[in-house]
Specification:
By secondary structure, the chain is mostly loops. The protein is about 5% helix and about 5% strand. The chain has a domain at about 255-454: Pectate Lyase C-like (3 Solenoid), CATH 2.160.20.
């Protein structure tokens, strides 16, 4: 940031500090936090900390109000209840930082990296900072119309539970897998942002701007959407349970398509697809069911191999014994679906929601695509939600399951040999008799040590 972006009277108002002097401030703050004699709270308001290294330190309750912190290294820094009022954090790296209850009103976080941040109850509302000039007059210090600016920020996986984000500017930001449960987002600009897999249960989006935003696989249950701008917002694959859709114009959003618009009865589509499969594409027609609402359809034993079902709503469907070989079900809503003894070999369930689904005895092992054991195509369940699902006896050998969530799932007798289970979650899952031989369990949570692992 150039000094010319601020009134000339304030160009010399930011105090410079060396890394060595900053390290001493951090040391004294640690003593202060520990209640040791000689400790002193870090008071760094209006200090130029751009490009400085503050990574990994506990700076809770420190005062950074009005600081210039562009490109600062704050990876893993604990900033609980810190004062970051109107701080300039543009392009800073806050990966894994803890900003819970921090005061970030009026802060500028444009282009910052906030991946996996803890930001519960963080205050990110608009804020105005006043500073005295050389003549003793007060003037308003703002970045962009005194709103909190998170534009173009990377906020993947950040926990913003109950955060105050009203009137904030979060345009074109990456909020993939962010937790925004009960967050205050009134009049917030989230246009063109990516909220794939985000959790917005109970969030208040009154008069928010969601133009062009993407909500694939997002959970919007019980969200408040009164007067919300939804022009071009992509809500396909989003969970809209208990959401009052009468207070905003949802006709302007992209929603799941009704079977009435399919152009042919579903049964005929399946017949044409079977012909397409058996003739290797010479006859019939591939089933293009992406984004369609197929809730509670009886598709028992149906041949849907290689079908296009991404972002489809298949909640409560009977897909037992169905053939889904190499089918694409990415982002599909399969909550409470019955997939018992289905053929899922080589299928993609990337970011699909299979909460409460029944996959007893299903086959999700690799498929041989070239007639040679050296060309195996694994089933893909990356980031899939399998909470409370029944996977008793499922075959998931060599499956791609990074970041899959198996919380409270039944995995008795499941075969995970040589599967990729990096960062998977097994909290309270029943893994009795499950086989994890050769599986990659790096970063996985909740797997009993006695069950093996790679």
């Amino acid at each position: 940031m150039n000094d010319s972006e601020f009134p000339s009277e304030f160009a010399s108002g930011w105090k410079d500090i060396t890394q060595q002097a900053l390290d001493e401030v951090i040391r004294l703050h640690k003593m202060f936090r520990e209640g040791r004699h000689g400790g002193k709270r870090a008071t760094l308001s209006f200090t130029n900390l751009s490009h400085k290294d503050l990574a990994g330190h506990d700076l809770s309750d420190a005062d950074f109000s009005g600081c210039r912190m562009q490109h600062a290294n704050l990876r893993g820094t604990k900033l609980t209840a810190a004062n970051l009022f109107a701080a300039d954090l543009r392009a800073s790296d806050l990966t894994g930082a803890n900003l819970s209850r921090a005061d970030m009103r009026g802060a500028c976080i444009r282009g910052a990296i906030l991946t996996d941040c803890e930001m519960q109850e963080c205050d990110l509302r608009a804020g105005v900072l006043l500073k005295s000039d050389r003549r003793g007059n007060l003037a308003m210090m703002t970045f962009d119309m005194n709103v909190t600016d998170l534009g173009s920020a990377v906020i993947r996986g950040a926990d913003l539970t109950s955060a105050k984000l009203s009137n904030a500017f979060i345009m074109q930001s990456d909020l993939t897998d962010a937790i925004l449960r009960n967050a205050k987002l009134q009049k917030t600009d989230l246009s063109q942002s990516n909220l794939t897999g985000s959790i917005l249960e109970g969030a208040d989006l009154t008069e928010a701007n969601l133009t062009g935003a993407i909500f694939h696989g997002a959970i919007l249950a019980r969200a408040i959407m009164h007067g919300t701008k939804l022009d071009g917002a992509d809500l396909a694959g989003a969970m809209l349970d208990d959401l009052d859709q009468t207070k905003s114009d949802f006709t302007k959003a992209q929603l799941p398509k009704s079977l009435d618009t399919l152009g042919a009865p579903l049964r005929e589509v399946l017949v044409q697809h079977a012909q397409w499969i058996h003739s290797s594409g010479k006859n019939g027609k591939r089933a293009e069911l992406a984004r369609y609402d197929l809730s509670k359809q009886n598709l028992e034993g149906a041949n849907l191999s290689a079908a296009s079902l991404e972002l489809a709503i298949l909640r409560g469907c009977n897909l037992s014994k169905a053939n889904l070989l190499m089918a694409d079900l990415s982002y599909a809503d399969l909550r409470d679906a019955d997939l018992a003894h289905a053929d899922l070999r080589g299928a993609s369930f990337r970011r699909a929601n299979l909460a409460g689904a029944r996959l007893v005895g299903a086959r999700a092992s690799p498929v041989d695509i070239m007639g040679s054991s050296t060309h195996l195509w694994p089933a893909n369940f990356e980031h899939a939600r399998l909470t409370n699902a029944n996977l008793n006896g499922v075959d998931m050998r060599r499956a791609k399951l990074p970041s899959a969530n198996f919380s409270n799932a039944t995995l008795t007798g499941a075969n995970f040999k040589n599967a990729n289970l990096q960062d998977a979650i097994f909290t309270r899952a029943d893994t009795r008799g499950a086989d994890f031989e050769g599986a990659d369990l790096r970063g996985a949570q909740g797997v009993p040590e006695t069950e093996g692992g790679g």
